[in-house]
Amino acid sequence: MPQENSKSLSIVIPVYNEQNFLRKLFDELILYFNSTDVEVITVDDGSIDNSPQIISEFLNSNKYKFDFKPIRLDINSGKGKAIQTGIKKSIGEYILLQDADLELDTKDSNEMYNMIKSNDDIKCIFGSRYLSGKLKKNNYFFNNLVGKINSLIFNIFFAQSLSDVHCGLKILHRSVIKKIDLTINDFGIEIDIASQIVRNNFFIYEYGVSYYFRTKEQGKKITWLDGLKSFFYLFKARYFDNTTSTNISILYSCLYMTYVGSFFGMGLGKTLFMIFFFIIGSILGIHFKIISSSIILFCIYLGSLFGNGNGTSLAVLVFFIIGIIIAKYVKKNYSKSIFGIYL
Model-level pTM? Predict the structure, then answer.
C-alpha cells in the first residue's frame, strides 16, 4: 500500500494514441515540474500507435528528476477509466489531471499548482478556457456550444457558477479525492468529478487557461456523440445519484409545483405551464428537503385562497416567492438542528 502524501504532487495523464505530442509533453513536464517532490503517472489506455514505445524510451532515459510511473491498460477503456486508475496509484498531497494532447498549456498547470499549494483554503481549482485573457485557438463551434450549454445546466442543477465544467485541467487536494468515488469511464468523467466535489461541499475555484484546439486529423477524439452523452450524465448526476431523502424531496416538490402550474393559462397553455413548473419543482427538490419544501407548499396554498382568476395566479406566484424566502431562512438557520436532515 503506497504511503499517501509522500509526494507533494501527483500528475495523472491519460494517454491514448498520442505519439505526436508525448515527446513535447515530457519536455514541458521537465521544464515545469522536474522535482523529486513530484510524481508523473501516465496511464496508456490501450494505445495502438507508438505511444507505448515513446513512454518506454522516456522511462529509460535520465532526463528527469521526478518519479515516473507508466501504467498500461491492455484494452481501451476510456478517459475516465484511465484517470481513475492513475488516481488510485497516486500518492501526492495534490493530484493534477493533465491531458496528453497539449490542447492545454503545461505552464498553466504549473501556475495552478503554485496557487493551490500556497493557499490552504483552496482545495480544488478547475482550468477554464473561457475566463482567460490568454491565447485561444478553437474552430469547433458545436463542441464549444455544447460545452457552454452543459456548464449552464450544471450551474442550474448544482447552484454553481462555473464557466467550463469540461476543461480537462484540474488540480485537487487529497482530502477531495478521499471524498469522491468516480465511476464514469468515458469523457463524462468531467461531470462526475465536478458533481461529486459539489455534493461534498468543496468550493471549486476557476483559473483561466490557454487553449489550442487540435483537429480530428491530429487525433482529437471527442465527438458530437460525447456531447449528447454529456447531457445524460448531467441528468444522471443530478436526479439519480442522490440519497433516498433527496429523491423523495424531488418527487414531492415536482408534484406540488405541477399543482402551481395549474393556476396559469388555459388549454394547451395550462399544460405548458404545468410542465414548466414541474421542471422548477425538480430543481427545488434538490435544494429543499421535506420540511423546508412543505413551507413553500403551505405558502402556495395560502396564496390560492386569495382573489379570482388572474388575481389568484398572481397571489400564488407572490406567496410562492415568499415561501422560498422563508424556506431559505429556515434552512440556513436550523440546518444544524436535529431536523437538519429534513431541511
Answer: 0.81
126-171: per-residue pLDDT in tens?
Answer: 999 988 777 777 666 677 777 888 899 899 888 889 999 999 999 9
Is pLDDT larger for residue 177 or for residue 340? Answer: 177
Which residue type occupies 197?
I
Output the 3-class SS for the chain: CCCCCCEEEEEEEEECCCCCCHHHHHHHHHHHHCCCCEEEEEEEECCCCCHHHHHHHHHCCCCCCCEEEEEEECCCCCHHHHHHHHHHHCCEEEEEECCCCCCECHHHHHHHHHHHHCCCCCCEEEEECCCCCCCEECCCHHHHHHHHHHHHHHHHHHCCCCCCCCCCCEEEEHHHHCCCCCCCCCCCHHHHHHHHHHHCCCCCEEEECCEECCCCCCCCCCCHHHHHHHHHHHHHHHHCCCCHHHHHHHHHHHHHHHHHHCCCCCCHHHHHHHHHHHHHHHHHHHHCCHHHHHHHHHHHHHHHCCCCCHHHHHHHHHHHHHHHHHHHHHHHHHCCCCCHHHC
* Distances, alpha carbon 318 to alpha carbons 298, 300, 337, in Å: 13, 8, 29
